[in-house]
Automatic annotation (TrEMBL):
Keywords: DNA-binding, Nucleus. It comes from Amphiprion ocellaris. One of its GO terms (biological process) is mismatch repair. This is HMG box domain-containing protein. The chain holds residues 6 to 304 of 882 of the full protein. The lineage of its organism: Eukaryota, Metazoa, Chordata, Craniata, Vertebrata. GO terms for cellular component: MutLalpha complex.
Amino acid sequence: SDTVRLLSSSQVITSVLNVVKELMENSLDAGASSIDVKLDNYGLDRIEVRDNGHGIKAVDTPVMAVRHFTSKICSHEDLEHLETYGFRGEALGSICAVAEVAVTTKTEEDDVSTQYMLDFKGNIVSQKPSHLGQGTTVSVMKLFKNLPVRRQCFSSTKKCKEELKKVQDLLMAYAIVKPELRLMLVHNKIVLEGFFPKPGADYSTTSSSSPDKTFLFVNNRPVQLKEIMKLLRQHYSAQYPDDPARNRFPMLMLKITVPPSSVDVNLTPDKTQVLLHNKEAVLTAVEALLVSLYGFRPN
Ligand code: ADP
Ligand code: MG
């Protein structure tokens, strides 16, 4: 039954670290020489593992995430000379039971890659051609969405940071035992684009009655984010230490692009207030950009 499936899956898949480890082992089993791991919101919103391994044959894709399917052993004898990490055929199926999973894969024989969306039971619900090269990319979205208590366990920033550290340690361990393997870990990819006055060029107004010369967008939506506005103003004003007003509103534009799942836009009817789930990471990235532009950190 579905409940049994959920219970047993939640024993196999217990954490972000655990998912990353299973997916990386599949990549290594597929002979990958390069593995990229991307996490959004510490992996709770999205875990993506991309490899350049041999891919999944079209004949195997319908069953890849079906419980106890494995392409790695054919006979009982194979069990005795096992050279792969996986052989139980449990990981992908278990992950499907506790998250939303998409698998994109291309073998040497395939002309293009195919993206498969999987359901709760690991069955393919839809598929479409995609543009990736040879290898496999597994995306795991909304981990533990159906296990609120488990998800809650990972919701404190402290716990999340501990978990991220463990993922870093895991990659480090693989890097040590497999020095020929190329590994990459990206957490919270945030794209910042903007129109900023050159350092020293004063395009500002000191009148607090017209703070609306700073345009801020999150995922193409005009928004008001007090903390970011303040940060922009501080860094910009810090160029004018002798200016007593010290309250400049620069004329600039900043576009922030974050994973859609890491932002809530419906807080107010006009949707200008947004909630960034990874606000700390965004603030850090904006600050780093401002320091690189204006060269100093205001106190
Ligand atoms: P196991 O690793 O124990 O075989 P999994 O549930 O982890 O079971 O994976 C199921 C099957 O899906 C694998 O046997 C393999 O055929 C295929 N597979 C999963 N991930 C990859 C990958 N990154 N590259 C190639 N094949 C994969
Ligand atoms: Mg496996």
